[in-house]
Each structure stands twice: as structure tokens, then as C-alpha cells.
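Work Package 3 (structural annotation) set out to generate three-dimensional models for the target panel prioritized at the project kickoff. During this period the team completed the workflow that converts sequence records into C-alpha cells, so that structures can be stored uniformly alongside our sequence database. As a representative example, we reproduce one entry of 103 residues exactly as it appears in the project archive.
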Amino acid sequence: MNDDNKLKTLHLLQRTVGLTANQRLVVMLYACHPADRSGAVLETAVELAKLVGLSPTVFSRTRRQVIEAGWLEESERLAHIRYYRLSSKATGENVVVQFRRAT
């Protein structure tokens, strides 16, 4: 992890101070886990839960809370499996694409 990534991770840790320990764990897991080009973590809840030592039920419930709080967003869906990524609230980046008039 380079210094820029360490700094981003530290800022995220500071911004999540108001969350519960499990909620912070889920956000930080998504921040540190390898992701695809869109930022989506391509692991299932069962695999991620095992990685951090939570039961799949607790992990899914906690992830749902974090999504409702705006820290994660759904990136894509394959059949019944949903993949998530950090939202702009978590990354601190305001991603806005300007529309332009069609000519």
C-alpha cells in the first residue's frame, strides 16, 4: 500500500467514527479489499464474512445498515448476487458527470 492509499484509508477511518465497530469493519473491508475497475468488490457476503470473522447473517445485516447510511452502494448484480462498492460519501470524492446538449 503506497502512502497515498494509506492516507485515504486513514481519512476514511476518521470519517467513520460515528459508526459501530462492525459497521466500520465492513466499510474498511470494502476500502481495503481488491476491487474491479468500477470499484466493486467481487466477493460474496459469505466469503467476506469469513475473512473478518463474522457470521454471514451478522455481516449481511451490518452491510445493509452501512448501505442505508450511504457508505456503500450497489455496483452490479449477477443473477441473485449483488456486488457493492464504496459510495462517494466513503471515498470523499464527488463524482459528477456533466451532461452536454446533443447537437
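The beta strands are 72-78, 81-86.
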